[in-house]
Amino acid sequence: MSIEILGQSPDITHLLRTLPMIALSDASVLIQGETGTGKELVAQTLHDESRRKDKAMVTINCAALPEESVEVDLFGRGDEQGNVIQQGRLLAAEGGTVFFDNVESLPLSVQAKVLRFLEAGECQLLGCHKLQLVDVRILAASSADLQKLVDAGRFRRDLFYRLQVVPLHVPALRDRIDDVLVLLRHYGREFAGNNAVVRYSKQAEHCLLTYAWPGNVRELVNFCQRMALLHPGKAIQPEDLSPEMLPEIAAESHVFTLPPTGIKLAQVELDLIEQALEMTSGNRSKAARLLGISRDTLLYRMQKHAL
Fold it and tell me: In Å, what is the CA distance from 263 to each residue of 89, 257, 273?
């Protein structure tokens, strides 16, 4: 099954509209976002829609590079006559795309050589003084705050700026909560196979819309696969969900007591919306989650109150 970039939220719509334009360029792209948001998918899309799509995309997981031979693994090894004895992974990407995943884990010891590679396409092979020239497109991804790592001296400032010629941010799922139902339905169909598709009761939908999804889209995909395996064709109820997906007991058990003098319901609604927006610094998706409603419902009520 192929995983896709899906959604109708403004952030995802903008990203999907922007990717084809960026793909046509050879500029370096730095893709940032939390783990599980789909940074690898963005990189693959940029490669697949580029003029290099017929060549290889070489993915280098910087967090898994062997410390004792990282330079050889990346650049390769040569002899004094300039012959290539061992081809590194960068040379193997000739004409294609190099994707540095978890680029924040790139050892400081090789960052200067990687910078030179980005700037001039030059590979300095170990044991060889002759430079090898390579034509590749550079993409990188990080779930860390690279600017903070630069300020702390743990990542080269010049390499950071060279990587982020075009910066892209992939939003967390909790910041595009309106896409949750779209994703649930899509992957529900994908995982159903020959079985009936899993459905969700309104109560279960509410739980899933108010859940923070710390593992982002990757967690949601795994969840859909689990539901399809364990509850094929069933209408999922809250009791079928993991305990951490259920709203906090305190929030569920709290009962508002109407004062004898009554209230102005419209004013209470307005006050709660304003408080939620203030608590989330104006982030409407987060505010909707705090209020237990969808983003579209929040926008409707904001319009009603002329906010």
Answer: 68, 11, 16
Question: 91-113, pLDDT tens digit by residue?
Answer: 889 999 999 999 999 998 889 98
Q: Given this model, what pLDDT does residue 251 score? A: 47
Cross-strand partners of 138: 98
> What is the rounded radius of gyration, in angstroms, for the C-alpha atoms of the chain?
24
Q: pTM value?
A: 0.77
| Final residue before a domain boundary, out of 226, 247, 268 | 247
**CA–CA distance, 117 with 114 (Å, rounded to integer):** 5
Q: What long-range pairs does 151-160 form, CB within 8 A, spacing at least 24?
A: 154/108, 155/104, 155/106, 155/108, 155/111, 156/108, 156/111, 156/112, 156/115, 158/115, 159/111, 159/114, 159/115, 159/118
Same domain, 224 and 275: no
Query: Do 57 and 138 belong to one domain?
Result: yes
DSSP for 221-246 reads HHHHHHHHHHSTT-EE-GGGS-GGGS
Residues in the chain predicted with pLDDT less than 50, given as ranges, are 249-253
Show the tokens assigned to 74. Answer: 């990346």
Domain boundary pick from 220, 247, 274: 247
Residues in contact with 254: Cβ distance below 8 Å, sequence separation at least 6, in sequence order: none
Domain region containing 190? 173-247
Burial class (CB in 10 A: 0-12, 13-18, 19+), 120: exposed
Q: Strand, coil or helix: what is 284?
A: helix
Q: In terms of Cα–Cα distance, which of 217, 216, 301 is closest to 265?
A: 301
> What pLDDT is recorded for position 81?
66
In the prediction, which pLDDT does 262 show?
A: 80
Q: Is 171 helix (H, G, I), strand (E, B) or coil?
A: coil
- Please state, in angstroms and rounded to a whole number, the distance separating the CA atoms of residues 19 and 13: 10
CA–CA separation, 137 vs 47, rounded Å?
9
| pLDDT at res. 22 | 97
